[in-house]
Structure formats: C-alpha cells, structure tokens
Amino acid sequence: MSDTPPLDSRLLSVLVCPVTKGPLTYNAETNELISKKAGLAFPIRDGIPIMLPDEARRLES
C-alpha cells in the first residue's frame, strides 16, 4: 500500500463523474475514484484526482 494520504471527504462530496455526472466512490486500496455507472476508475496522483476520461481505467465487469 502506498503512503498517499486519504482523499479529503469534502472534495469527494463535490466531485462527480465527468462522463455521467453521477456520484463517485473512493477506493483507498487502488487510490482511485470509482464511477460504477460509467464503469471507470479515475486515478489520484499526488493527492489530485485526474478526472479525464482518457486517463481513467475501465472497470472489469
């Protein structure tokens, strides 16, 4: 596990998926923001969520 600080819950409360505009959940194990509706996982690098669809990882079905 990395030594990356956890995502601030206030930030999570205002972020939405850029594709669906739906809610995101934080996965501490992978340090990603998950959009179940879009099937995407957005990385967090140096504490900054990368909310670009081209940078997101497709979730396994």
TrEMBL record:
Family, as annotated: Belongs to the UPF0434 family.
Coiled-coil boundaries: none
Protein name according to UniProt: UPF0434 protein NBRC3278_0022
GO cellular component, one term: cytosol
Organism: Acetobacter pasteurianus NBRC 3278
Gene3D superfamilies on file: 2.20.25.10
Pfam families, A to Z: Trm112p
Record PANTHER family: PROTEIN PREY, MITOCHONDRIAL, ZGC:162634
Transmembrane segments: none
